[in-house]
Structure formats: structure tokens, C-alpha cells
What does this fold into?
Amino acid sequence: MLLSANAKRWDHLYRLLAVLSSVLIALIIGQISAGLAAGLVLGACLVMIGISRFEILIHALIILLPMQSALPVSLKSLGTLNPFNLLAGVIFAVWLVNGVLRKRRLFYWNRMSVVIAVFMLVCVAALANSARLHGFDFMNAQTNALKRWLSPMLLFFPLANTRLTRPAIKRLVITMLIMIFIIAMWMTKDIINVGWEHIDAEIRLGGPFGFGGENDMAAFLVYYPVIAFTIALFESRLIQKMIYGGIFGISLFPLILSMSRGAYLGISIVIFFVAIARFRWLLPVIAVAAISYQFWVPGAVQHRMESTVITSNETVGGRVPGPHEMERNLEESSALRVRIWRGAFRMIESYPVTGIGYNAFQLAVPQYANMEWGMDAHNMYLRVAAEMGLIALMVFLALFWVPFLSAWSVYRSTKDRFMRGWLLGLMACICGIIIVNIFGSRFVREELVGLYWVSISLMYGYISYRRVRASRIVEGQNRRLEQRRKQALRSPNNVVMP
It folds into this structure.
């Protein structure tokens, strides 16, 4: 819709003021922090771009989110800013300005908006509870961690409430697939450089997620490449089918060599869901692959899959296991999880409503399990329940099942093949997230979960687009009917047309 003359004048004035004020501030702050000054200038440029094409900012966000850990150190912090905070701030600012200039409604309530808002309130309450139980110094130390967890969720509001067209949403999904391909190729390159025959449980790679991000990288490869796979299954053109299918196929190589048993189970459930939901011919393929895995997976992977049970385990989590504890006969990783989960259940029993406080699990675990402090929960659901209470766990689970139901509804009603493939892949992605987080806390890191929130936002944007398009069609039909009635009233016979 074209802007009014007054809105256009305000548009041009806003851009001019943004440039002049940003340059002035940058010149002043440049004497103190060159990085901050550069960030302000970059922010002004992004604002000018976003006023004209908000979609470009979302493309930039999709590119930035999974690559944050791979940025050079000099770019990770521009004074007090970092690229993600800068871009997120610009997205919010441009969303608000565009809404005012174009006199559009900024916010539309839907079930997902309510769930996210309630979950954020629960998180803030858990942070306050951590101050009550562990002191204000502990709470202040966890504030930034909570901000990093909630920041991608907050982006749901500007992204889902922006009027994106179907072609724009498709372009954004394609950008997401390109980033998935880049990360899969990055991992493949690193594996080839190391030598795939040298990869084992002790030598694992984190790719763009860096050292210590090996399990997060494995989870990423479970969550997102399936979207390319389902789009390929729905695609009728051979070249596009090969391209999308190739992205999924390339991602399987680093996934297999991730040495993550949770990722193996996750990708199995993901493909099984796709088969049950639409493509039943995949079921015998899954069965054959599972039965014959010893013939096509590397020996190190086979050993990893078969190494859960051992004869004896001397220590678990830095402590000696009891003679009758089951973790004595489990390998180190599995034994550690069993002991941590037992401690998590004890935490939930002690604080079923309020939890022990946000991000306090690692601090409190020695009191509830026979192990040293600093151990992660290795289960996202137990972590949420232990730190924030069972009510928070129910709200947390709604972050998955609410968009799953919405995606299923649109998937069944739309005839658009690309969108059907994307929505089925998004539902499979949610299945993968649910499974992987049983074995690890893999729903916290921005680089890992960022694309999930962008995808969910785009889905609700597509729902809004369909709703607006349907209402316009109805309005057009009513308008034509009214015109026909007026013409009938003016006709000589004065017969009203039905």
C-alpha cells in the first residue's frame, strides 16, 4: 500500500535525522570507543535499509544467527554492542517506525504470542527466585544469560507481525536453507581436513559453533536440514528436488560423524515422523538402514552406539558410585546423565512450584546428587522443571506443541507445494528438538535455537498473510456483488440480480 504524502515526508525526515544524529554521535563517541562509533554508523545504515525493505533485515538475521561464534573477535564486540544486539535493536526500531508511518496495527495476538509472553514472565519470576535463594549477586550474574536466552524469542513479535508476502517468506526460507548448506559444508571440510577415519568419541568437531559446541552442532544438524528434505519431497521439478535433497544429504555426513547418540535417535525420529505424516514409502528405507547400519557407518560410530554398557565404572561426576547404583555399569556419559537426572528429580520434589532459581542447577546439584558442582542437567525438561517449577515446564512444552498444531492446521489446508514441504519440515524440526533435548540442554544457545524462532515467526506471518488474502478475496466478491446490484437497479427492467 502506498504511503500518504504526509507519511512520505515523515519517512524522508526520519531517514535524514537518523543519518545526521548517528554520524554526530559517532564522531563524539569515536573519541572514546571506535567500535561503538562504528556500531552506531552501521546501525544507522541498517535502519535506512530496513525502512525501505524490512525483509533485508530478516535475511541478515538468518545469516548472522548461526555464525555468531565464528565471527572474528574484533567483530563480536563493538564497544558495548555486538552484532546480534545491534541487528535485533534495529529490527525492533524499524518495526515500530514502519508501523507508525504506515499507520498499521503493530501487534496481533495469537496463541504463540500468549505462550511466549507467559514464559518470559515465568523466567523473570525464576530469576527473582534465584535472588531469594542464592543472593542478589548470583541473580545479577545470571541476568545476561537470561537475556541471551530470551532475545531470540522476543524477535517473534516484530517478525510474526510484519506483513510479509508469500514470495518474501519463500525467499527467507531459501536463505535459511543456504545457511544450513554452508554450515554442513563447513563441517564436511573440517572432517576432511582432520580425516574422517580419525573422528571418534574423543576427537569431535564443533564447526562454526567452536570448541565445546560439538553437541550443539550435532543438534543443529538434527533440527534444520530436514526442512530441505521435506521441501525436496514435495518439489516436482527435478533440479530443485536435487538441490534441496542435496542439502539434506550433505548434512548427514557430519551428523553421522558427530558421535552423538542423542542426535542419532533424533534424526531417526525426525525421518520416521516425515514417513508417518506423508511419505509412507520411507518406512522400509528406515527399516533397512537400521538393520544394515553395521555395513555403512564407520566403525567408530558403531562403537559409540554400542558402548553404553560396560563392566565397571570407578568414578561418576568426580565421585565414586555406590555398589548398587546402576551407573556403576554404564559408560561415563550415560552414567553421568543417570546420576544428574536422579538429582534433578530430587530438586523437583523439594521445589515443585517455584524451582531452585534460574540457572542455579549447576550450583545446587551437589546437594541433590553425589557429584561435583558445575554439572549441566543434560535434559532440558528436567532443567526447566528443577530451576523454574512444574508450571514453567508446562509453559515451556507449549513453546513446541502450540506451533506444531498451528503448522499442522495450515499444512492440511494449503495447496502450495513449497509451503507444505516447509511446514512439514518445521513440524519434523519440532520433533527433533523434543527428542534431542531429552539428552541435553539444547534449547538455550542463540546460534542453535535462533533459526527455530525465525521459522516459527515466518509461519505465523504466513498464517496472517493467508488470513488477509482471504479477507481481501471476500471483500472483492462483496464489492462485485454490490456493483452488480447497483447496475441492476439502474437497468430498465429494474430487476435485482442475485
Notes: The longest helix spans residues 446-490. The mean pLDDT is 83. Residues 315 and 486 are 87 Å apart (CA to CA).
